[in-house]
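idk why but the lab printer keeps eating my pages so im just putting this in chat instead. protein + iron/sulfur cluster:
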Amino acid sequence: MDKWRAQLEGLNALLEAFRQNREAGGRLRFGRSVIVASDIATQFYCEKKLEMEHLHGEVETEAKNVGTEAHENLTEDSVKVKREQLWKDIYSDKPVFALEMPLLGKYRDVFLAGKPDCVLFARGFPLVVFEYKFSRSGVAYPSYHVQAQTYCVLLENMGFDTSKLFYAIVVADPRTRGSRELRQQVVQTVISNGAKEAVHSIDDATVYCNKFNRVNAEKDLAWALEFWKQSREAQPTSNQNKCARCEYQNHCRDSTGQTLFSNDNIC
Ligand code: SF4
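predcted complex ->
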């Protein structure tokens, strides 16, 4: 049997197991049956905030709206294909940029899922996971790395050979709104960079190229899983600047019974 077909059959079997698991009722925190990569990233920003989102619902903010719009623009000009066609293309002779490809894998005894902005494949090998963030800071925060590395773990657990895999975190000015020019420049930069770690400044963005490191990713996942398996309570951030611009600061102070920041410190 072709490798792509065998891998796809494995994924279909996993999807069936996932459906059955979900119908039986999730055993993870908040009754969840799957842990999503973006939630793990939020844990590394502030785990308490993730808990607040679940308890009080997501609050719309301008920054989130700009980010959503920019991410929608990233898929402009893309062609929707069925899963079987995508797998055939991934294992073909031509490179493929898979946008928002749904990933699902088993990690230890839990299901992990995620949808990376883009994955570049060549002859069945995932070569680069592209993760776009829209922020003026230009900084690749630890939570961005955790999210991208979780996608890499997922690709590996789905049966892909990740020995050549890099991930590129693109921190772009929100004004670019994920424009086509930005995407083209990013791809050119990353491809001409080749297989090495580097930081590139391009117009309106900084691109961080990193080799996937399974050991680091596993360490981060182990910490994140403790929360989902209810072995510990949510940990609040100690960064007062995050609290100062947090949409849940009132709820958070109510639940912890403490003032997490002083208004004097807000800059
Ligand atoms: S107020 Fe601070 S600790 Fe509380 S959820 Fe927001 S960022 Fe986290």
